[in-house]
Design a protein that fits this description.
mainly alpha; three-stranded mixed beta sheet; two-stranded antiparallel sheet; disordered C terminus
């Protein structure tokens, strides 16, 4: 719709738009961005401007009227092309002989002019109170809060995916899938020696388990404390039956 932009600028913006669409597609699939958080509803702003449905109906009628005008003009043009000049050499004679077709063109033109004038007098947008005075919206405060949590979770997953990249050869294709599996993995949780120890079960493949164990070591180096406490979070992974090492990763 931006006819004022160059083709290169449009392509640049479209590429950026695709990136956003990919993000929202992933968020809907894995972070429930479209989930209904509450059934609570509040009244919509009655002064909010919305598209005028009357103008939309006029635009539809105008498009149909223009189509009928084109058809009438085409019929008149065909008659003009087939006009036997030996019988009707003047335009006056042609108009008299084809008065009905000419009247159809004039009538169609008048209808188009009338609808165009009516459309121009009709505002593009009107207050919501004129269109749907009973309109209501789902309560937005809770939705904003839950979306903030979901976006934060996505950003955390993205940060972990960047840390995982050098540790997992197939991170470009399977990195986020590995993380989602790790998020759902069961494990053990205990408090000992001033630490909150989280020991996860092995993943579906030894290579994934090794990558997760290496990622846990990187997270342990940050010495992050559990919010509201002084306990340092320590991550580890239990040994996978397919691992060559017999030393358990969970300590």
């Amino acid at each position: 719709s931006r006819a004022d932009l160059s083709a290169a600028e449009v392509a640049y913006r479209m590429f950026a738009r695709w990136r956003q669409e990919n993000y929202f597609k992933y968020g809907r699939q894995h972070f429930a961005l479209d989930a209904l958080d509450t059934y609570a509803a509040v009244g919509d702003d009655p002064t909010r401007l919305v598209p005028n449905p009357a103008r939309t109906k006029l635009a539809r009628r105008l498009a149909q009227a223009r189509l009928r005008l084109v058809e009438a003009q085409a019929t008149y043009g065909v008659a003009a092309a087939a006009n036997p000049e030996a019988q009707r050499p003047t335009m006056r004679g042609f108009k008299i002989a084809n008065a009905a077709a000419g009247q159809q063109v004039s009538t169609a033109q008048e209808v188009v002019r009338r609808l165009e004038a009516e459309r121009d007098r009709t505002p593009d947008r009107v207050p919501l109170a004129q269109v749907r005075p009973e309109a209501r919206l789902l309560e937005s405060e809770r939705k904003l809060l839950t979306h903030a949590v979901r976006l934060s979770a996505y950003n955390a997953e993205s940060a972990l995916a960047r840390l995982l990249a050098p540790l997992y050869a197939r991170s470009a294709d399977e990195g986020r899938a590995l993380l989602r599996e790790a998020f759902r993995a069961a494990g053990d949780l205990r408090c000992a020696n001033g630490r909150l120890e989280i020991c996860l079960n092995p993943l579906s493949a030894p290579r994934r388990t090794r990558a997760l164990a290496a990622l846990c070591e990187l997270l342990n180096d940050t010495e992050t404390t559990y919010p509201g406490t002084e306990m340092v979070i320590h991550y580890s992974v239990k040994d996978h039956p397919g691992l060559a090492s017999t030393t358990p990763l969970c300590q």
